[in-house]
Amino acid sequence: MIQVNNLSKEYSGTTVLNIESLEIPKGQSFGLVGNNGAGKTTFFSLLLDLIQPTTGCVLNNEIQVNTSEDWKPFTASFLDESFLIGYLTPEEYFYFIGDLRGQNKADVDALLIRYEEFFNGEILKNKKYLRDLSKGNQKKVGIIATLIGNPEVIILDEPFANLDPTTVNRLKKIIKELADNPSITVLVSSHDLQHTVEVCDRIVALNKGELVKDMPTTKETLQELELFFAV
Ligand SMILES: Nc1ncnc2c1ncn2[C@@H]1O[C@H](COP(=O)(O)OP(=O)(O)OP(=O)(O)O)[C@@H](O)[C@H]1O
């Protein structure tokens, strides 16, 4: 269970995120939507302890995220993967991440075989550096890397961006499989309302840093969101 208490973030005196209270139960597939600048990436960055809150805190299973090394079961992929990427081939990168998460080569290989169709196994053979891959292929590598080491919480910031339609469908299948696992919590942010509604069982909308909608996914959710964002 992730708990958010009185969480806010300011930059130069301007509040960009302000969430009084939010709970994300273990096993939930949680969709975060909102216009450009609404605060989605800020929220995820706070969950991941990549930035410090101005007020409040985030707890994972009652452990405050930035006070203990024990909270680190979160993995994440972001829209722009380039910050992860030096002069490493995808294969070197996967083994490097595996090493960080206590996975041996055989564990990583098993995962790569399992998801070969999604991330396009060809990427491994051509030995290009990650920085020289297309944006979509970088994205695929970033997403698969989040799955290494059996994380409890997987954060996918704009996972559908830059992916072709076939790959989007494969990704939706993967997210639904993860969502069906009661011990895995998946958090997805996206501008694609339809994809988000399809893979998430709860949708939260942010507007200018404030939580403006919080609803379970039903048959009406997509229409409701489309009307909301059409205003
Ligand atoms: N380092 C920073 N310094 C100043 N302002 C920032 C910084 N990082 C984010 N912001 C501001 O915080 C607000 C929320 O940004 P954020 O990236 O969280 O939005 P978002 O919902 O992810 O947007 P998008 O859909 O465009 O990716 C924006 O107004 C942004 O300009």
TrEMBL record:
Residues 2-225 form the ABC transporter domain. InterPro entries: AAA+_ATPase, ABC_transporter-like_ATP-bd, ABC_transporter-like_CS, ABC_Transporter_VariousFunc, P-loop_NTPase. The keyword DNA repair does not apply. It comes from Flavobacterium aquariorum. Keywords: ATP-binding, Nucleotide-binding, Transport. The keyword Ubl conjugation does not apply. One of its GO terms (molecular function) is ATP binding. This is ABC transporter ATP-binding protein. Pfam families: ABC_tran.
